[in-house]
Specification:
This protein has 248 residues and is of the alpha+beta class. 46% of the residues lie in helices and 14% in strands.
C-alpha cells in the first residue's frame, strides 16, 4: 500500500504557477512525499551507516541529529569532522544521491571562551527554521541558543502581508481574530527561550503590514499609528511570549 502511494505521488507531477510538469528525477520541494522518502532512503544511507561504520572509527565523540533530509552532526574532534565530510559525497553517490553544495559545510562551533585568538569566532548553523548560536544565559553561562532564521522570518512575514492584502476589506474585528491565530501559531513554534527579540520583532512587523493594508482600503483610508494603536487596544493581538524552554 505504501509503495503504491509513493508511486502515485512521484507520478502525479508538480504544479507551479499554474503549469503542470512531470520531472524525471527527484521530489518536489515541500511536497508531502519528500519527508517520507528522505526517511526511507537516509535511514540506511546515513543513519545506519554512521552508527555501524563511522562512530567506531572516530577518535572523539559525535552526535547525529536528522529530521527528514536536514542533518547536523556535532563532532568532538575537528579531524573526525573533516574525514567524514570528505567521505560523505562518495557514500551518497553510491545510492544515486548528492549533497547540496551550498548547504553542506563544516562549521567551527566552539564555545567562544574556548576559541583561540586566531579564530573568527564561533560559527552558526541553521536547522528547522532556527539559527543556532552561542550566547550567555541569564546566569552568565554559555549555552547554545536559537533565533528565527532570517529566511523563515521573511517568509512568514510575507505570508501575513499577502493575507492582509487579500482580506483588507473584511471587518477589522475578523481581521484581528485571524491575525491573532497566525501570531499564536508563530509563537507556538518560534517562541523558545533566547528568541524573544525575534518574535517581538515579528509582532511589531505584523502590526506594521496590517496598518499598511488597512490604509489601502480606499483613497481616504489612511491610518496613522495612533489610530492603529486604538484598534489594537480594542481588538487585542496576542503579545509575544515564550512557549518552550530550549537552552542547551
Amino acid at each position: 500500500m505504501v509503495l503504491r502511494l509513493i508511486g502515485k505521488w512521484l507520478n502525479a507531477g508538480v504544479l507551479e504557477d499554474g503549469a503542470l510538469s512531470h520531472p524525471e528525477a527527484g521530489t518536489p520541494q515541500g511536497g508531502v512525499i519528500s519527508p517520507l522518502l528522505a526517511n526511507v532512503y537516509l535511514h540506511e544511507v546515513f543513519d545506519e551507516w554512521f552508527v555501524r561504520d563511522v562512530q567506531p572509527r572516530l577518535e572523539g565523540r559525535a552526535v547525529l541529529v536528522r529530521y527528514a533530509d536536514d542533518i547536523v552532526v556535532v563532532f568532538g574532534k575537528e579531524a573526525d569532522a573533516r574525514r567524514v565530510h570528505g567521505v560523505l559525497p562518495k557514500r551518497f553517490a553510491k545510492y544515486g544521491l548528492a549533497l547540496h553544495p551550498e548547504k553542506t559545510r563544516l562549521v567551527e562551533f566552539r564555545r567562544p571562551d574556548r576559541s583561540s585568538d586566531d579564530d573568527d569566532g564561533p560559527g552558526t548553523f541553521d536547522m528547522l527554521g532556527f539559527t543556532h548560536h552561542w550566547g550567555l544565559s541569564r546566569n552568565g553561562k554559555w549555552a547554545v541558543m536559537k533565533r528565527t532564521a532570517s529566511d523563515r522570518f521573511g517568509r512568514a512575514l510575507k505570508r501575513v502581508a499577502q493575507w492582509c492584502r487579500l482580506h483588507r476589506h473584511e471587518p477589522i474585528k475578523e481581521q484581528a481574530r485571524m491575525l491573532g491565530w497566525k501570531l499564536r501559531g508563530h509563537y507556538a513554534y518560534y517562541g523558545v527561550t533566547s528568541n524573544f527579540d525575534a518574535i517581538a520583532r515579528f509582532y511589531h512587523e505584523v502590526r506594521r503590514v496590517w496598518r499598511k493594508w488597512l490604509s489601502r482600503r480606499s483613497q481616504r483610508a489612511y491610518m496613522p499609528w495612533s489610530t492603529l494603536l486604538r484598534v489594537v487596544e480594542r481588538f487585542a493581538l496576542p503579545p509575544p511570549r515564550i512557549v518552550h524552554s530550549a537552552l542547551a
